[in-house]
Design goal:
With 242 residues, the chain is of the alpha+beta class. It has three helices and ten strands; from the N terminus they run ααβαβββββββββ.
């Protein structure tokens, strides 16, 4: 009898242990390989993206207008003149943007050779593609924190077209230029719009930069000033943020 009671106690103990073990196993707590997945490697990446979606800009479009000038020999034969155009910018994040712009303008031309004096007009159109980097101003004085200073660098395709009443032919050429510039933007209308100013220097080399002879219908005339030098401009902007 004692042996039978001992066997029953053992069976009851084993049954109780099995039930408690089963009760402690929750299928919802099983390991899920996707439970810890996150598209952000670090918390800082997630915070940066949240900040961009809240305070950043995806796209901007602006009208620009301002004076264009020249250096060295070009500054002696080309007059400073206004130009106008448009700018479109796509933002990768709060600090970096890709800008594409198109500007055009006409300048009066006056130059002399050993035989004649010529006057006319030159039309210059530029298509530029530049990267803009915006500086962080969150740690400066509150009144300056809303300003958006930036630097830019890139390249431009420059097209030039001459027209002279005293010359039998007109000329047209194009070349590449390297752009370096600085600027600042000021938000308007609760950051829905902005205004600003941008100064850019274009390192440029036209095909006739080192020539000192003018071909006037088969007659070669010596130029008193070479068409060398670079180009710069100061643009005033008014645009919208999207």
């Amino acid at each position: 009898m004692k042996r039978i009671l001992s066997c029953l106690l053992v069976v009851l103990a084993m049954s109780s242990w099995s039930v408690s073990s089963y009760a402690q196993t929750d299928p919802d707590e099983a390991y899920d390989p996707f439970s810890d997945y996150s598209e952000f490697d670090e918390a800082s990446d997630e915070e940066a993206d949240i900040n961009f979606f809240k305070n950043g800009r995806f796209f901007t479009a602006a009208m620009v207008i301002g004076p264009r000038g020249f250096t060295e020999g070009l500054g002696k034969v080309y007059n400073d003149a206004p130009m106008f155009g448009i700018q479109l910018s796509y933002f990768f994040d709060l600090r970096l943007a890709l800008m594409m712009g198109l500007t055009t303008g006409d300048s009066a031309v006056n130059f002399t050779t050993n035989a004649n004096t010529y006057s006319g007009n030159v039309s210059i159109t530029t298509f530029n593609m530049d990267l803009k980097y915006y500086f962080n101003t969150q740690n400066v004085t509150r009144g300056l924190a809303d300003l958006n200073p930036f630097i830019l660098g890139g390249f431009s395709q420059v097209q030039r077209s001459y027209s002279f009443s005293s010359l039998s032919t007109t000329s047209r050429d194009s070349t590449m230029a390297t752009d370096l510039g600085v600027g600042i933007e000021i938000p308007l209308m609760r950051r829905k719009a902005y205004t600003g100013v941008q100064a850019t220097y274009h390192y440029i080399s036209f095909p006739d930069e080192n020539k000192d002879l003018l071909d006037n219908g088969g007659t070669l005339e010596k130029l008193n000033n070479k068409f060398n030098g670079d180009m710069y401009d100061v643009l005033f902007m008014i645009g919208m943020n999207f």
